[in-house]
Give the backbone structure.
Amino acid sequence: MKITKICCIGAGYVGGPTMAVIAQKCPHIQVTVVDLNEQRIADWNDPNPENIPIYEPGLSEIVAEARGRNLFFSTEVDKAIDEAQMIFISVNTPTKTYGKGKGMAADLKYIELCARQIARVAKQNKIVVEKSTLPVRTAEAIKSILDNTGNGVQFQILSNPEFLAEGTAVTDLLNPDRILIGGDTTEEGEEAINALVDVYSNWVSRDKILTTNVWSSELSKLTANAFLAQRISSINAMSELCEKTGADVNEVARAIGMDSRIGPKFLKASVGFGGSCFQKDILNLVYIAKSYGLNEVADYWEQVIIMNDHQKRRFSNKIVQTLYNTVADKKIAFLGWAFKKDTNDTRESAAIYVADDLINEQAKISVFDPKVSKSKMLNDLDYLETRTSQENIKALNSFENAYEACKGAHAIAILTEWDEFKTYDWKKIYDSMHKPAFVFDGRNILNAKELESIGFVYNGIGS
Ligand code: UDX
Ligand code: ADP
């Protein structure tokens, strides 16, 4: 089947950039991204491409090129489903916050709603592509809904996990390490797989496009994220030992990374990993393992999360201890709130948890993040339900620039590795602060020697 019309349900961090790149690279395919959230769609359609709702380097340029040509953003979900031969499901699958599997299993209610909507609307055969991270065997559930509630048309379900990392989404999409497509091994399944292979081969070489069965594809995504997160928890575990022994975790990471079997990437000790994927996917893996009675497997992977939670807590404890065991009414400046640089996404950001701990100790938090709004920060805190919105408003403030955020602060905590932090006039910042002035570098991005020569008391991770 030759694909000429694609619909993507979900205009978020995955659906938006992925469809923008497909549209740019496949001008012969009409790509329509739909979402229930009217504001989000309005933002994607903002005449100024700089105002699109997701910040990713290079994305606004691609949207500017393709939007209105063969890339469309719309709230007319039914219409887009009806017209498309291929439908990507790119809705969010957060960890369940209620009922069975609470805090562990993925909440599939948005996926199920999509499947039911597709079943209701579709009047011709469709290929349905799972793009969201899903527990293994979700494709089966989607298929069952489609086959049992549809209008008698044929559906092929493909799993096509997204491996892009936020902050580098555009380059990851343009030059992927691999594209993974899982489908049925029947003739119709293979036809569907080939249709999607043809879409990607407009810009990705065939030898990078891997095809597997559906379940291998689904499980590969969880496994990839678990392995990546495990490397971070492993190096973070060593960072605590380094602090006790006088070794330097950056030197250790460099030394082990030169072993070609280990490799240098994903060995940066930090205040802890965040983002919408790692924690959710590992919890999901743990839940699946437990549900098959594989307790050792579950415990093994759960430890990655336990270590990550410990690392965040350890960082806030260190701030309190260093500031003479009290931060009550002290101003602590946060540089960065996003879960990593070059994104405005804050889901599971370490900053949220560190702020929460410090506010419990009655500190006042003043934040500067180049891309995150104050309302988003407050929403993140409210979501924890530790205290009321009014209390959060009193405890957290955000500023237009770092110099304002740091003025009069007792300490600075670096929570995100934004490049611009390295270029600041640190002497000027030091002069505006309470003395002794502390820096807690949760990302190890600043030059410790330089800061110490100015007069700062510098604390990095793992040294
Ligand atoms: C991740 C996967 O990389 C991607 O393939 C998948 O599709 C989605 O999940 P993402 O969460 O966007 O992507 O970003 P990533 O670069 O993986 O970073 C995740 C977290 O780990 C961030 O908080 C980052 O700061 C942290 N991290 C990363 C470290 O603390 N140390 C490192 O060495 C690398
Ligand atoms: P991700 O990082 O997985 O892309 P996001 O939360 O950024 O997650 O985006 C998911 C999007 O999916 C949200 O904008 C949400 O409004 C949208 N969405 C969820 N359920 C549906 C649905 N049934 N129909 C259309 N859009 C949906």
Observations:
- The chain has two domains: 5-212, 215-463.
- The radius of gyration is 23 Å.
